[in-house]
Amino acid sequence: xxxxxxxxxxxxxxxxxxxxxxxxxxxxxxxxxxxxxxxxxxxxxxxxxxxxxxxxxxxxxxxxxxxxxxxxxxxxxxxxxxxxxxxxxxxxxxxxxxxxxxxxxxxxxxxxxxxxxxxxxxxxxxxxxxxxxxxxxxxxxxxxxxxxxxxxxxxxxxxxxxxxxxxxxxxxxxxxxxxxxxxxxxxxxxxxxxxxxxxxxxxxxxxxxxxxxxxxxxxxxxxxxxxxxxxxxxxxxxxxxxxxxxxxxxxxxxxxxxxxxxxxxxxxxxxxxxxxxxxxx
Length: 281
Description:
Layout: E1 12-16, E2 19-22, H1 23-45, H2 52-75, H3 77-81, H4 98-116, H5 120-145, H6 155-160, H7 167-172, E3 174-175, E4 178-179, H8 183-205, H9 211-228, H10 243-264
Antiparallel strand pairs: 1-2, 3-4
């Protein structure tokens, strides 16, 4: 049995009497604001209105949080059905699903784009690295809550890799004498690499409009599929079929089909920077 060499992390960031602010919320908010900063810089470079993404986030963030919670509670209904009703809303305890958040955010962005008379695909391309950055940072909220971790670590895995991680991570992954895989860290690193790749894609290769966002969907879904298989807190559709893995496969297929379809039907007839694709004379 392993023992911690440090006490568990305090989940409370600030206690103001009847109001308690948790690290989970602070970290999620930090990821959202850094993502907004990145998106605002890029939209300004492309000549869009500076407040466009601020206006979008005013609607997208609360709707994404609500849809993420609804998604989670729907698949964990047996857990909440017999308890106090207020636990359904207790997101400070953890329990929001990124796929639910993305559904809410995309629907909001589609409606927002129509109202503002701008291209949804252009907004999505600009936002893609920001979304992934927010996800990378947000996973550290799971670390503070000691959730979303993987299964027990084998001796071989510890000796080959995990022993080289910082002590503050390894210590917190020891729960009841067992060390678990820090899958929050695996996904965070995967997402950071993805942010870099998406920035290179849109700056160096100038892909067709919509393909930065669809590349994000494919990239994130690949990583999530494999990391989800290591987690011990997965949501399940039926039997042993993990919801996140099923959704990841569906999203990869849909994204690839959309890229091919939009190219063949000339719907992706503009590059990322807005220049229209035309035949050479």
